[in-house]
Design goal:
The structure is a single chain. This protein is mainly α. The chain is built from six helices and no strands. It has helices at residues 12-29, 37-58, 60-64, 68-92, 102-125, 134-149. The longest helix is centred in the middle third of the chain and has 25 residues, at 68-92. The relative contact order is 0.11.
């Protein structure tokens, strides 16, 4: 029976007070002001870094690390970073500014089409030249994360 845990009560004004107290405690844990912009920006840069590290692991790292288990570990780290970046983003940004994020949305869509689409096509057709399109999609992902960090 924690004393600082807000209780759901039938009265709406009291419920709002309990919710406001909970939000104030969350704001105090994030630095006191309740402004979590720094966490949003850090999450966006984490996404850009995840894409860049994935590209590094898929290309440059394979030239120096030959142990498949280590390369698999790198791949797993990149996947987990990107998945958890998405989770951080959903917990730090309110939906009311969706209309302002058209650039990042477009870049992410282009990234999915160019990056993933070219890899799917390469695997299905065996046409290795399609791999030349993949880095363009990766750049769309990176610029999408950076645009998102700046509310675009």
């Amino acid at each position: 029976q924690g004393l600082d845990r807000p209780r759901l009560v039938a009265s709406a004004p009291l419920f709002r007070v309990a919710s406001a107290a909970r939000l104030a405690r969350l704001g105090a844990m994030s630095g006191g002001s309740g402004d979590r912009t720094w966490l949003w920006t850090a999450s966006c840069y984490s996404g850009a870094l995840g894409v860049a590290l994935g590209a590094f692991g898929a290309h440059a790292l394979k030239k120096t690390v030959t142990d498949p288990a280590l390369l698999n570990a790198w791949d797993t780290a990149v996947k987990y970073q990107l998945v958890h970046t998405a989770v951080l983003l959903t917990t730090t940004k309110q939906p009311q500014d969706r209309e302002q994020r058209t650039l990042s949305t477009g870049l992410f869509m282009a990234g999915n089409i160019l990056f993933s689409g070219s890899l799917y096509a390469l695997v299905l057709t065996g046409v290795k030249k399609l791999g030349a399109i993949t880095p363009m999609g990766g750049m769309c992902y990176i610029f999408g994360w950076l645009a998102l960090a700046h509310g675009r």
